[in-house]
Write a structure and sequence with these properties.
By secondary structure, the protein is mainly alpha-helical. It has helices at residues 43-63, 68-91, 97-120, 126-148, 157-177, 183-218, 224-231; strands at residues 25-26, 152-153. The protein has a two-stranded antiparallel sheet with strand order 1-2.
Length: 232
């Protein structure tokens, strides 16, 4: 989240401090084929950079130009590029340290910007933006708890379902605003996906927060100096 690099346990040293049965703590980091490189100008990284550069254009097309049709096309391009960079990185073994940070940073920027510009343009109520930002801020605080204990947080499918619903709600609302075919059904589907997504987003945020509180109570904090030494 927000490009925060959470250290992975090395050799069981840090993860050994986690009591058994604590949910949300991954004791063994996943290992995949290939090596993570230090290269910058790889095709997946260039796609991620392009996605970040395209986000302001999308925001202006919604909030300033009032061009929902253009914004819908740009949002489709942004969504496709999010899938494409990861696919290329995995398929051609082009994973890099920069790419591991760029991709979540681009996602976080997009997820933050989209509700803001939609609220500014009157497509969604402002309270939706407030709820989403408060939930994300809560997750950032919980990441500090994980980092201080050298634990990799486990992603839950509830959060993925919330993001999926939200990411479908915005193009549906744009399609309704652009009068694409039948605008009323698109608007109803978009609003339904939006409010379901907000509810699931809040629910998953409470789950993450509860796990962080439980880990903070049961697991002693590790000095950051020791955490950083494990990464060397």
């Amino acid at each position: 989240m927000l490009g925060v690099d959470i250290p992975e346990p090395r050799g069981g040293h840090l993860s050994a401090a986690v009591p058994p049965g604590v949910p949300g703590a991954s004791e063994e980091p996943p290992h995949g084929p290939g090596q993570v490189s230090d290269r910058i100008w790889t095709p997946p990284n260039i796609i991620s950079m392009g996605r970040i550069a395209l986000i302001p254009v999308f925001a202006v097309s919604v909030a300033v130009w009032d061009r929902p049709g253009l914004a819908l096309i740009l949002l489709a391009v942004l969504g496709a590029s999010d899938w494409l960079d990861g696919k290329i990185a995995r398929l051609f073994d082009m994973r890099s340290k920069l790419g591991a940070k760029l991709d979540p940073i681009a996602d976080r920027i997009l997820i933050t910007v989209v509700p803001l510009v939609f609220a500014f343009a009157g497509h969604v109520p402002w309270w939706v933006v407030f709820v989403l930002l408060v939930r994300d801020a809560t997750l950032v605080v919980s990441l500090v708890v994980y980092r201080r204990r050298g634990i990799v947080p486990e992603v839950i499918y509830l959060g993925k379902a919330a993001s999926f619903a939200l990411m479908w709600s915005f193009p549906l609302l744009l399609a309704a605003a652009a009068n694409v075919w039948f605008d009323d059904p698109f608007r109803l589907l978009g609003e339904a996906a939006l409010y379901w997504g907000v509810g699931l987003y809040l629910w998953s945020g409470l789950v993450y927060l509860g796990r962080a509180v439980q880990i903070a109570r049961l697991t002693p904090a590790v000095p950051l100096k020791i955490v950083d030494e494990q990464l060397k």
